[in-house]
């Protein structure tokens, strides 16, 4: 998630600086940029270029400034509102699909604030269908049906998920979630392998897996078990079961790395080794550049660009390069 923090007052700016320091340590936060004053200008930029906006200002200023740009829950960024004293963190826009509610609950304890969430499903301890889609990185084919399904969930009605085969990550997510959703499962060959079809009373939503790629870099000679430790910990930070991963990726120079090959085989995951020429040409403002890797292989990085290239055009990082004892892990998701 790429976050823009916009402040107005000096007190708000200091709070923004403190928050950035803490968020920079979070591997699931790709980058945090700070903007001060010039609110209308910066909020307009942030609305189209960032996944989330944290506005440290009065709610009236925020709402009037973003009102012209609001379009759809499927495309609007997450917007949070924090007062200058950091007393409250308010999920203001795109609570579910945009992840504002989740981000609110992450940020509030960082500044000892009270999280404020008003979406009906959350305050009634129910799991929205769009929250499930967001948390598991699934796309929704018909966002207009979200309201019907979430209303049904609030009423305690049962949703049927039709699958082509068992999806462990879905069942694991539902079993361990603190929010409630009454579901049943059916199986059909008519459902595609990457689809989960939610249905109730003639209404239907198709949830499709976005390609999730784990990029891996490692020092020469790292064992499969050592690489797996980093792989496992990174997925735990995202609360994802290993079955949600579609592919692994690394650089061409790692194609004979035994530990990496053994890991791919043991996980039963395809692995893509990206050509050095493609890595040299690849450009992204979001990747971390390593001069050491550049001096050794002629490229600025392995795990992040490999994951992004493998996930496809317009993909984005959901887990930035993180080191685990000589192993680097990142994750990218297709758009």
Secondary-structure topology with pairs:
Blueprint lengths: L1 E6 L2 H14 L7 E6 L2 H11 L2 E5 L2 H8 L11 E5 L5 E6 L6 H8 L6 E3 L3 H4 L5 H7 L2 E3 L5 H9 L4 E5 L4 H9 L6 E5 L7 E6 L2 E7 L2 E7 L5 H14 L9 E5 L6 H10 L3 E4 L1 H6 L9 H7 L5 H9 L4 E9 L2 E7 L2
Parallel strand pairs: 1-2, 1-3, 3-4, 5-6, 8-9, 12-13, 13-14
Antiparallel strand pairs: 4-5, 7-11, 8-10, 10-11, 12-16, 15-16
Q: What oligomeric assembly is this protein in?
A: single chain
Quick one: biggest sheet? 6 strands, mixed
Give a count of the beta strands, DSSP E runs of length 2 or more: 16
Spell out the helices and strands N to C: EHEHEHEEHEHHEHEHEEEEHEHEHHHEE
Shape summary = globular
How many whole angstroms does the radius of gyration measure? Answer: 21 Å
Question: Mind explaining what this structure looks like?
Answer:
- This protein has 335 residues and is an alpha/beta fold.
- The protein is built from 13 helices and 16 strands.
- Helix 9 (224-237) links the parallel strand 12 and strand 13.
- Helix 2 crosses helix 3 (59-66) and helix 9 (224-237) packs across helix 10.
- The chain is globular.
- It starts with a strand and ends with a strand.
- The model has no long low-confidence stretch (mean pLDDT 93).
């Amino acid at each position: 998630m790429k976050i823009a923090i916009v402040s107005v007052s000096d007190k708000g700016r200091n709070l923004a600086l403190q928050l950035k320091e803490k968020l920079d340590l979070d591997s699931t936060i790709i980058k945090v940029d700070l903007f001060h004053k010039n609110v209308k200008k910066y909020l307009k930029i942030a609305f189209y270029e960032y996944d989330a906006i944290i506005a440290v200002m009065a709610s009236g200023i925020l709402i009037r400034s973003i009102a012209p740009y609001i379009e759809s829950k499927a495309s609007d960024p997450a917007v949070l509102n924090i007062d200058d004293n950091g007393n409250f963190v308010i999920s203001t826009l795109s609570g579910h699909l945009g992840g504002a509610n989740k981000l609110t609950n992450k940020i509030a304890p960082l500044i000892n604030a009270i999280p404020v969430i008003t979406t009906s499903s959350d305050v009634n301890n129910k799991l929205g269908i769009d929250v499930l889609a967001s948390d598991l990185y699934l796309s929704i084919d018909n966002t207009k049906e979200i309201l019907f399904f979430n209303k049904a969930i609030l009423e305690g009605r049962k949703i049927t998920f039709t699958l082509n085969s068992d999806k462990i990550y879905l069942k694991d997510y539902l079993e361990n979630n603190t929010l409630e959703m009454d579901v049943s499962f059916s199986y059909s060959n008519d459902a595609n392998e990457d689809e989960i079809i939610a249905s109730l009373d003639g209404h239907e939503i198709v949830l499709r897996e976005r390609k999730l790629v784990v990029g891996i870099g490692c020092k020469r000679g790292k064992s499969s078990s050592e690489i797996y430790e980093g792989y496992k910990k990174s997925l735990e930070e995202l609360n994802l079961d290993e079955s949600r991963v579609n592919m692994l990726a690394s650089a061409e120079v790692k194609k004979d790395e035994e530990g990496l090959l053994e890991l791919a085989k043991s996980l039963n995951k395809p692995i893509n080794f990206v050509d050095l020429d493609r890595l040299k040409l690849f450009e992204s403002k979001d990747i971390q550049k390593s001069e050491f890797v550049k001096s050794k292989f002629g490229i600025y990085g392995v795990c992040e660009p490999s994951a992004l290239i493998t996930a496809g055009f317009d993909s984005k990082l959901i887990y930035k390069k993180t080191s685990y004892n000589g192993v680097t892990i990142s994750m990218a998701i297709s758009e």
